[in-house]
Amino acid sequence: MATLSVCQTQLGGFSFENCKRNAVLETEVTKVGCRMPAARKTGTTIVGVVFKDGLVLGADTRATEGMIVADKNCSKIHYISPNIYCCGAGTAADTEMTTQIISSNLELHSLSTGRLPRVATANRMLKQMLFRYQGHIGAALVLGGMDCNGPHLYSIYPHGSTDKLPYVTMGSGSLAAMAVFEDRYKQDMEEEDAKRLVRDAIAAGIFNDLGSGSNIDLCVITKGRVDYLRPHDMANKKGVRTGSYKYKRGTTGVLTKTVTKLDLEVVEETIQTMDTS
Amino acid sequence: MLTELCSVPVTGMGQHVGAYGVQDTLRSGFSSVKNELLPSHALELSEKNFQLNQDKMNFSTLRNIQGLHAPLKLQMEYRAARQIQRLPFLQSSHLALDTLKGNDESISFEDILNDPAQSEMVGEPHIMVEYKLGLM
Asked: For the whole model, what pTM was predicted?
């Protein structure tokens, strides 16, 4: 009501006005027999491993919407700061917005302190925010980066608990990936061994879990250098058709043919790259 | 201005009680017990009181570390900064208050979602000023 806005000051942030209406709508819709639209999730395999001079983060690239693949090549390794990257599993919008907010906050913080941000700072900010929203923000994250104290790897759960470990896996394919890690992880590996291990762990998740698929992305973070390898390995290439089903020219008889030339003038030419995959 | 360690108690959605102790139908519309007894979302109450709880916690910690003068001085500054605003129907930038609270160096959902400066509903200016001045 208009008079209500007079008495209460407007606040930003989440608004719960439509929750009751949505609950009523959901009961009505299920009575008719339809389903409410599902949020796009990234049923995922994301992993991280610490090696001798840094760490490797890995992720698959499939985003699902219920039983349908919504995006065959989505990017799950998000930028947080020049030395910190974060893989996200769970609801795609939640991971995207959460990592962007924390990245902005970390940039402001590092401008204020004048130092390179630390991974523990990003971890603390993320866990405080996720705990504040009691798990309703469905973002399970693998946070990794290199700072003045060496390489650090954290796993952050949607309710706000965190673990600091040398190797972590999250997402629906985490069990398959963890099996590979538990078998072959050694302390102080070389970079190539670590990359191969992460690639194999993600491949295990891709081939054994329906929620993960498509390509393998890798991000290698060492002191002063970040290699974002997208795609590192195309594990699932789309098949090529062996025969052509097109009809030959002349199959349909042509009765008449008229050609009209359109006088067009090229005013501007721009190129926009699409993610075709 | 005593600072306690307890958080703001969970009191249901709060009936807008008018001057005579009954529901103020003119200002807050018809009342419905079902609407006001339970929150519509699990986070609604905790989000409504989040800033208050944070402030209480911070002030009591400050009192324990630095003594009573520290939260008293800060609360005085907050009160002063809160008074320099525009008229109620115009958007004020809250610059001084934000700087005091440290919100100028962070971004959260309050800055991104439902920005009050871009809300589609505008209050009636005369009524809002009358309400603020207590003439209504």
From this structure: 0.83
CA atoms within 13 A on the CB side of A35: 4
Measure CA B86 to chain center: 17
Residues 6 or more apart whose Cβ sits within 8 Å of residue B11: none
Instruction: Give the three-state DSSP class for A134.
Output: coil
Q: How far, CA to CA in Å, does A121 sit from each of A32, A80, A154, A250?
A: 49, 11, 11, 69
- The answer to whether the Cβ–Cβ distance between A108 and B106 falls below 8 Å is yes
With beta carbons under 8 A apart, name residues in chain A contacting B36: none
Query: Residue B134 carries which side chain, given as an amino acid letter?
Result: G
Copy the structure tokens of residue A94.
Answer: 């939640």
Are A179 and A50 contacting, i.e. CB atoms less than 8 angstroms apart? no
Does ipTM top 0.85? no
Interface residues from chain A to B (CB-CB < 8 Å): 1-7, 9-16, 19-20, 23, 97, 101, 104-105, 108-109, 112, 129, 132-134, 136
- Tens of pLDDT, residue by residue over A145-191, are 999 999 999 999 999 999 999 999 999 999 999 999 999 999 999 99
Query: What whole-number distance in Å separates Cα of residue A73 and Cα of residue A233?
Result: 12
User: Which structure tokens are listed for B109?
Assistant: 């959902």
Q: Which domains does chain A have, with CATH numbers?
A: 41-61+71-234 (3.60.20.10)
Contact A101 B16 (CB under 8 A): no
Q: Is A185 exposed, middle or buried (0-12, 13-18, 19+ CB in 10 A)?
A: middle
Active site residue A44: yes
**B76 vs B70: CA distance, rounded Å:** 10
Per the rule left: phi > 0, alpha: psi between -120 and 50, beta: everything else, B14 is left
